[in-house]
Amino acid sequence: MGTFHYPNGKKVTSIVKKQSSSSIKKDISYSNRGMSLEDDINQSNEYYLLTNQAIIHKKPTPVQIVNVEYPKRSAAVIREAYFKLASTTDYNGVYKGRYIDFEAKETKNKISFPLKNFHEHQLLHMQHILNHDGISFVILRFSATDESYLFDSSHLITFWNEQREGRKSIPKAEIEEKGHSINIGYQPRLNYLQVVDSVYF
């Protein structure tokens, strides 16, 4: 058992256990049926870096380890750790001399994107980026149909603020209207910079 603490002191317990050979085989056989949004973005970012188009990385989650056990000389087990800070967004970097910062989320919902997938501190961070003329957006994926959209943070903030009036999600029709579809290909897997070019440059 391992325990992680968020900045507010709340504990989150994670179970660390060895996988049996049968479960590992199962993971291998099922994991490549459909790439996750994060995998697609990470592969695309590697391609952008190798082709000298942009420098965009996934932000590491800052963790402070406070309790480690060494059951074997060659193995260490983290028993307790703290998340130092609440996370902001998933990715940031530089593209064509501009700072770029975005979050990536996916949902199994077919007709809307739940706002509960986001957190207030993330929206505040996005607003700060916009205030300083940075490029800020979210990449939203509907996993059931494998559709991905670039959605500017200004639109997300508007929908977020409407929660006070009872809004719980963003209708897919609104995402299709205000967002921009991202093509899925081979290299890069998810060519979101092509959309960034058309929207921000």
TrEMBL record:
This protein is called Holliday junction resolvase RecU
Where in the chain is the site Transition state stabilizer?
A: 105
- Give the UniProt family note: Belongs to the RecU family.
**Which InterPro entries does the record match to this protein?**
Resolv_RecU (IPR004612), Restrct_endonuc-II-like (IPR011335), tRNA_endonuc-like_dom_sf (IPR011856)
Q: Name one Pfam family in it.
A: RecU
Where is this chain's protein located in or outside the cell?
Answer: Cytoplasm
* Sequence positions that bind Mg(2+): 88, 90, 103, 122
EC class of the enzyme, as a word: hydrolase
Task: Name the gene behind this protein.
Answer: recU
Listed under catalytic activity are: Endonucleolytic cleavage at a junction such as a reciprocal single-stranded crossover between two homologous DNA duplexes (Holliday junction)
Q: Which domain of life is it from?
A: Bacteria
Q: Does the keyword Manganese apply?
A: no
Q: What UniProt keywords apply to this chain's record, in alphabetical order?
A: Cytoplasm, DNA damage, DNA recombination, DNA repair, Endonuclease, Hydrolase, Magnesium, Metal-binding, Nuclease
Q: Which organism is it from?
A: Fictibacillus norfolkensis
Bound cofactor: record note: Binds 1 Mg(2+) ion per subunit.
